[in-house]
Amino acid sequence: MHLTSQDIFLSYIFPEIKNTLYDYTWIDLYCGEGNLIFPILEKVPIHERVDFFKEHIYLSDIQHQMVQKCIEKAQSYNIPLEIAENNIFCRDNLHSFPKRLKKNHKPLYHITNPPYLYLGYIRKHEETKRHLKYFENENEGYQDLYQIAMINDLRNELENLIYIIPSNFIFGASVSNKFRMDFLNHYNIIKMLIFETQIFDFTGTNICIGFFQRKKFENANPQKFKGIKFKKNDKILVREYCLTPEFKYRGGAEFDEFINKFKAIKPLNVKYYLRDKDVEANKGKNEIEVIDTNEYISNEYKRKRLKVNDYLKEKVKSNILYIRTVDTGSLEGRAGLNIIKEDFNVDGIYVSKATYRTSPIQIFLTPTISFFDQILLKNYFNLLLEYFREKLDSEFLTTYKYSNAEYTRKYLGLTQVRNLIETFPINYKQDDRKKLIDLLKSKEVDKVLKLLSNLKEKNQKNKLNKIEDWL
Fold first, then answer.
1. pLDDT band at 156 (very low <50, low <70, confident <90, very high)
2. Are strands 300-308 and 348-351 parallel, antiparallel or unpaired?
3. Model confidence pTM above 0.85
4. Distance from C-alpha of 16 to C-alpha of 190, rounded to nearest angstrom
5. Residues β-bridged to residue 89
């Protein structure tokens, strides 16, 4: 439970609705202390407040103590107890939408900070498994409680919504893809306020405030809207967004467009992790030195010596790269490809127990490429990753955790790692190879992109020529 302050409402929400107060019935079905609705009364003349509250305000929450707090707060505005108890009620609104509100003569306008809890977390913890009931039947496939709240509003045809929700709504991949496709076929995003600063005391979740309006007709048109990002050190960034159904309406999809467009003809095959089962299946007399990412002692991973056969020794030693998926917070420790020997002075990175996506992960490439080409791949990968981070304000990545770092820490998904590696043009002619080496040395990313375009054109021409020859 993360209670919303009145300041959030007054600073970011009220300016958008102040001229329409008498046009709607204002509701919050996950009201907490009511701070997203009660400030409206401050803007209503005192002699009109009772009638306004009776006709225009309804609050509800699943927690009795919150409902009681709201009733007491209504009384502090001189709302009679009978009216307060009628318009503020206790109910499980995630389970279903309150039908009594649909009989209201004014259109409903829902302003809320709903509960959010990720389905993966709910499944893993006994104290939260009771929430699994919300994800059954028609809600199967959704991934968070806030999505259940919003889809209930969609099914009950509410026209206007203002939701304070995790920013993974717009930037998340698997956690939000299905929901965005279902929801944004029915609603337009009018405006989005995105916070990369902490506005709730007890959560590391980055949030956004979304302003949504129901479409007249269901459609899958691109979503164009203005986004305002509140960043560290009081910086504000204004961006024009265009979200397309082709990329599941996800923010930062220009990165996905790139990897789709420039996937190599014969891409490198990527596999992750040196697991315990690999070692058990390939025991031998050769010794390799590794770090074990499951044993972290005194701020470093435990070093081990493993006995393996010729095959596994060669496989481990010939793949020199690992992926750091999470920014450390320092500019030198951003997510990207790195060399195992340089950072850990061992042959490989071993996983003795469970795999964790946030630990350093050794990468195994097929076909095996030379050490020089792996270093070339590292430089290519990191140059393009940083290019898209700057161009897209890192929006194609997942925000990791709040920190005091000078930039917002991000998580790079393993699918994104694989996809970017698959654009590396490993099968190129000597002239093109030399050009790529020179461009990566000079870090001329625009020319690297142009080279990729030229290679793509050449490949397409070669295909056409082969077809013509065959015909």
1. very high
2. unpaired
3. no
4. 11
5. 60
Q: Quick one: 165 exposed, middle or buried, by C-beta within 10 A (0-12, 13-18, 19+)?
A: buried
The pair of three-digit structure tokens given for residue 436, joined into one six-digit string: 């790529």
**Three-class DSSP category at 131:** helix
Taking alpha carbons only, the member of 96, 224, 76 closest to residue 153 is 96
What distance in Å separates the CA atoms of residue 184 and residue 219, rounded to the nearest whole number?
A: 8
In this predicted structure, what is the pLDDT of residue 378?
97
Count CA atoms within 13 Å of residue 57 on its CB side.
27
Q: Using omega within 30 degrees of 0 as the cis cutoff, is the peptide bond preceding 107 cis? A: no
Which is nearest to 151 in space by CA: 164, 135, 171, 172?
Answer: 135
* pLDDT band at residue 1 using 50, 70 and 90 as cut-offs: low
- 183 near 219, Cβ under 8 Å? no
Interatomic CA distance for residues 400 and 327, integer angstroms: 8
Q: Which residues contact 394 (CB under 8 A, 6 or more apart)?
A: 252, 407, 408, 410
**What domains are there in the chain, each with its CATH number?**
6-250 (3.40.50.150), 269-427 (no CATH)
> Residue 448 and residue 125: Cα distance in Å, rounded?
47
Show the tokens assigned to 122.
Answer: 């709910």
pLDDT, tens digit, 9 for 90 and up, residues 312-364: 999 999 999 999 999 988 878 899 999 999 999 999 999 999 998 889 999 99
Give the tens place of pLDDT for each residue, 182-210. Answer: 999 999 999 999 998 776 655 556 889 99
Q: Which residues pair with 160 in a beta bridge?
A: 109, 213
Tokens of 89: 């009620």
Structure tokens at 251: 């923010």
The CA-to-CA distance between both ends of the chain, in Å, stands at: 68
Asked whether the predicted pLDDT for residue 456 surpasses 80, the reply is: yes
Query: Cα separation of 212 and 192, whole Å?
Result: 9
Q: What is the C-alpha to C-alpha distance for residues 352 and 332, in angstroms, rounded to an integer?
A: 28
Instruction: Tell whether the model's pLDDT for residue 90 goes beyond 90.
Output: yes
Q: For residue range 258-293, what is the model confidence (pLDDT) as tens digits?
A: 999 999 888 999 999 999 999 999 999 999 999 999
